């Protein structure tokens, strides 16, 4: 078995035909037999870098791989559920940091950990093994969790299992945050979120929707009504592109576009507020959010889609600047990239041009990068390289600069760090006593799996806070 990773080829994800005609899950999920065979590729390392270095949740990957290999799916779920509260989310949207740190990836290709995790959790749901996580112990303490994204849900779930009463306040109409309103259905269908929320409600967690804390209700009020407050509000302040013509119509931030589609599909909105249909679409930003916008624009019927990135094109395989087990610096191609559109690298944006107040093109320049230790460091514009990209819809996908200003943040008076996020101590407490923060709100925009890990850690620190601050 120790050499199976050399004899059994890795089976990469497969995508269904005709997937751009709808917003359903794009992957063809392998059978349990195929997953069990893939689990044999795990080396069962004594020192498992996938667990200790790769996975932010510390999942016991070799152990659940061995259980799947032996056909013990219930045991595999028990192992996974110890560390991971929402495997159904991470097995769909996590980039699999664990696979980058897999020892089998050194002489061969890494184990398909993400696919194995998916089979474990879906098998557990199908067989009725996933139960509400509550506690027979009741502490008498009440916690208000602000925000129901991955960090907020993880925090609420853990607090409930520790015996505390939890109420989650969500400014939108439904729970999920980024999971529901930022990640397209073709990557994460929303019934998957609803399934988990139903279990959390059954466990005793209360959800209050359409409540904008800082506007509809003050933080001071919640501090009086609850023993602790957890700010899990994400980092939703988008990075803008302040160039000439930015005021033209047809230029939108990525989450405006993705939120519009999500609300339309769920029935929260009767029509698309932003549509790519029959338009030349320009996506500025080469990351995952840009990829999500690309796949969404194609499904909406865009005439053409171009995705540009200021950074140079990464190498096709792991670069020496990020040796194993680091998350590798390399070019990544998503399912959306395989569906159409084109990508351009080393492109600088100069100005937008428009007609009748609406954007019609971007004037751009080619860039020349200099490298240091294998990574891009500085650039200069190439003289005479000016060109134009036609676009009636421009989507800005350049990341986020911190928490949203005003509203709750202004109302709270909490201190911000130089990175524009809530400043917290080692126990996740903000500058306001009894008010905590975690996830993107405290660390800056990152991965769903890191937000989940942060939410769990925050819950444990709030539990410690209660034990050292007896009523």
Concise description?
The protein is of the alpha/beta class and 471 residues long. It has helices at residues 4-7, 32-39, 49-54, 61-69, 73-83, 87-93, 97-100, 113-126, 150-161, 178-181, 190-203, 219-225, 254-266, 288-300, 335-339, 407-412, 440-443, 448-468; strands spanning 14-15, 27-28, 142-146, 165-169, 206-208, 228-231, 237-238, 251-253, 280-284, 304-308, 342-344, 347-355, 358-372, 375-381, 387-390, 393-396, 400-402, 435-437. It is globular, with a radius of gyration of 23 Å.
Distance between the termini: 56 Å
CATH topology (level 3) name of the largest domain: FAD/NAD(P)-binding domain
- Summarize the amount of helix as a percent range: 25-40%
Strand content: 15-25%
Structural notes for this entry:
This is Glutamate synthase subunit beta. Residues 142-314, 382-455 form the FAD/NAD(P)-binding domain. By secondary structure, the protein is an alpha/beta fold. It folds into three domains: 4-126, Fumarate Reductase Iron-sulfur Protein, Chain B, domain 2 (Orthogonal Bundle), CATH 1.10.1060.10; 142-236 and 401-468, FAD/NAD(P)-binding domain (3-Layer(bba) Sandwich); 261-398, FAD/NAD(P)-binding domain. It is 34% helix and 18% strand. The protein contains 18 helices and 18 strands. The protein has helices spanning 4-7, 32-39, 49-54, 61-69, 73-83, 87-93, 97-100, 113-126, 150-161, 178-181, 190-203, 219-225, 254-266, 288-300, 335-339, 407-412, 440-443, 448-468; strands spanning 14-15, 27-28, 142-146, 165-169, 206-208, 228-231, 237-238, 251-253, 280-284, 304-308, 342-344, 347-355, 358-372, 375-381, 387-390, 393-396, 400-402, 435-437. The strands form five sheets. The protein has a five-stranded parallel sheet, with helices on both faces. Helix 4 (61-69) runs antiparallel to helix 5 (73-83), helix 5 (73-83) packs across helix 8 and helix 13 crosses helix 14. The longest helix is centred in the C-terminal third of the chain and has 21 residues, at 448-468. It is globular, with a radius of gyration of 23 Å. The N and C termini lie far apart (56 Å).
């Amino acid at each position: 078995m120790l050499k199976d990773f050399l004899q059994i080829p890795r089976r990469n994800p497969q995508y269904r035909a005709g997937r751009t005609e709808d917003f359903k899950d794009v992957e063809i999920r392998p059978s349990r037999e195929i997953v069990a065979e893939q689990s044999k590729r795990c080396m069962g390392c004594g020192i498992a870098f996938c667990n200790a270095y790769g996975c932010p949740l510390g999942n016991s990957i070799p152990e659940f791989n061995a259980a799947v290999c032996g056909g013990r799916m219930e045991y595999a779920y028990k192992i996974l559920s110890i560390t991971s509260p929402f495997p159904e989310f991470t097995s769909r949207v996590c980039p699999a940091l664990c696979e980058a740190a897999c020892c089998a990836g050194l002489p061969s290709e890494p184990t398909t950990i993400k696919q194995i995790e998916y089979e474990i959790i879906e098998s557990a749901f199908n067989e009725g093994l996933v139960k509400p996580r509550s506690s027979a112990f009741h502490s008498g303490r009440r916690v208000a969790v602000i925000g129901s994204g991955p960090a907020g849900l993880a925090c609420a779930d853990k607090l409930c299992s520790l015996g505390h009463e939890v109420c989650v306040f969500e400014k939108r109409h439904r729970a999920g945050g980024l999971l529901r309103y930022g990640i397209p259905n073709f990557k994460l269908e929303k019934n998957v979120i609803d399934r988990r929320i139903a279990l959390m409600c059954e466990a005793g967690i209360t959800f209050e929707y359409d409540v904008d804390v800082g506007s509809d209700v003050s933080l001071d009020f919640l501090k009086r009504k609850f023993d602790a407050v957890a700010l899990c509000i994400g980092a939703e302040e988008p990075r803008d592109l302040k160039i000439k013509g930015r005021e033209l119509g047809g230029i939108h931030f990525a989450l405006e576009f993705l939120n519009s589609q999500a609300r339309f599909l769920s029935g929260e909105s009767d029509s698309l507020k932003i549509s790519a249909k029959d338009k030349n679409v320009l996506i500025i930003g080469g990351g995952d959010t840009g990829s999500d916008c690309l796949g969404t624009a194609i499904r909406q019927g865009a005439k053409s889609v171009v995705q540009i990135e200021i950074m140079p094109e990464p190498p096709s395989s792991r670069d020496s600047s990020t040796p194993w087990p680091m998350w590798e610096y390399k070019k990544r191609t998503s399912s959306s990239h395989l569906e159409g559109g084109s990508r351009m690298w080393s492109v600088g944006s100069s100005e937008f041009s428009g007609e009748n107040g609406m954007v019609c093109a971007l004037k751009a320049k080619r860039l020349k990068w200099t490298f240091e230790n294998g990574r891009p460091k500085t650039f200069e514009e190439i003289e005479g390289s000016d060109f134009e990209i036609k676009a009636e819809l421009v989507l800005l996908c350049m990341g986020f600069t911190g928490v949203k200003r005003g509203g709750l943040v202004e109302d709270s008076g909490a201190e911000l760090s130089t990175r524009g996020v809530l400043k917290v101590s080692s126990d996740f407490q903000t500058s306001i006593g009894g008010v905590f923060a975690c996830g993107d709100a405290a660390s800056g925009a990152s991965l769903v799996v890191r937000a989940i890990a942060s939410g769990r850690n925050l819950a444990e620190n709030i539990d410690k806070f209660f034990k050292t601050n007896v009523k």
